[in-house]
Amino acid sequence: MRRQAAGWLLDAGCVDARTTDPFRLPSGWTTPVYMDGSRLISFPTIRRELMKQGLQRLLDAGALQGLSGVAGGESSGIAFAAWLAEKMDLPLQYVRKRAVGVRQIEGVVEQGGKVLLVDDMVSAGQYKLSFIDALRAEGARVEDLFVVFDYGCLGAAPVLQQHGVRVHALCDWRDVLEQARARGQFSDAALQTWEEFLQAPAEWSIAHGGVGQ
Ligand SMILES: O=P(O)(O)OC[C@H]1O[C@H](OP(=O)(O)OP(=O)(O)O)[C@H](O)[C@@H]1O
Ligand SMILES: O=C(O)c1cc(=O)[nH]c(=O)[nH]1
């Protein structure tokens, strides 16, 4: 299943891999690969399959028990949250990256209700922590995050776990790299740089002018 999700990200053209001029993420990490999950909304078959896999995964993990709402992270997470909320016939909210005035959440949050946070992806998890804080400040219980893609190497899952939130991701960079290799996508040099990053992300980032934690 992880390979299949990784393949869909490649099919949708979400992955960019470089050998020079690294990407600099808002968290300060530098990377040779970038995931543009926002493209997924434009591929109906892919997005439908991803949501089907997501629901199954959440069900298997017991994350759908007692849910009272689904909250999308601005902006790419909103469509995915809406599709999941519609499938489960649950209320939808979305969380802005920054408050407009005093309001960061749109939609109605049920006091004490359990909300599933949804986004297209997680890298270092900074935005997710802000979304979780905002939802909790409004009285929601947040115990689970669903994303299509987790970097898997920047430590977001353990940090979110410390904040009481489990991460449910369909795939990570290792899955995407294996799939890209199997398909012969990207140059050998790009695949090699990608592998070096995954083997030592902190060292790679620092060596390319980024942060390492
Ligand atoms: O900091 P993290 O929690 O790891 O999340 C990384 C964020 O990167 C993407 O958003 P981006 O800012 O690229 O824009 P968009 O969602 O508005 O498309 C993605 O949608 C996540 O929200
Ligand atoms: O760290 C981020 O914000 C980030 C990383 C990435 O690969 N793609 C993205 O959209 N955001």
From TrEMBL:
The keyword Magnesium applies. It catalyses: orotidine 5'-phosphate + diphosphate = orotate + 5-phospho-alpha-D-ribose 1-diphosphate. Transmembrane segments: none annotated. GO terms for biological process: 'de novo' UMP biosynthetic process; pyrimidine nucleobase biosynthetic process. CDD domains: PRTases_typeI. InterPro entries: OPRT, PRTase-like, PRTase_dom. 5-phospho-alpha-D-ribose 1-diphosphate binds at R96, K97, D119, D120, M121, V122, S123, A124, G125, Q126, Y127. Its EC number is 2.4.2.10. Pathway: Pyrimidine metabolism; UMP biosynthesis via de novo pathway; UMP from orotate: step 1/2. One of its GO terms (molecular function) is magnesium ion binding. Keywords: Glycosyltransferase, Magnesium, Pyrimidine biosynthesis, Transferase. Its cofactor is Mg(2+). It is an enzyme of class 2 (transferase). Orotate binds at S123. Belongs to the purine/pyrimidine phosphoribosyltransferase family. PyrE subfamily. Homodimer. Catalyzes the transfer of a ribosyl phosphate group from 5-phosphoribose 1-diphosphate to orotate, leading to the formation of orotidine monophosphate (OMP). This is Orotate phosphoribosyltransferase.
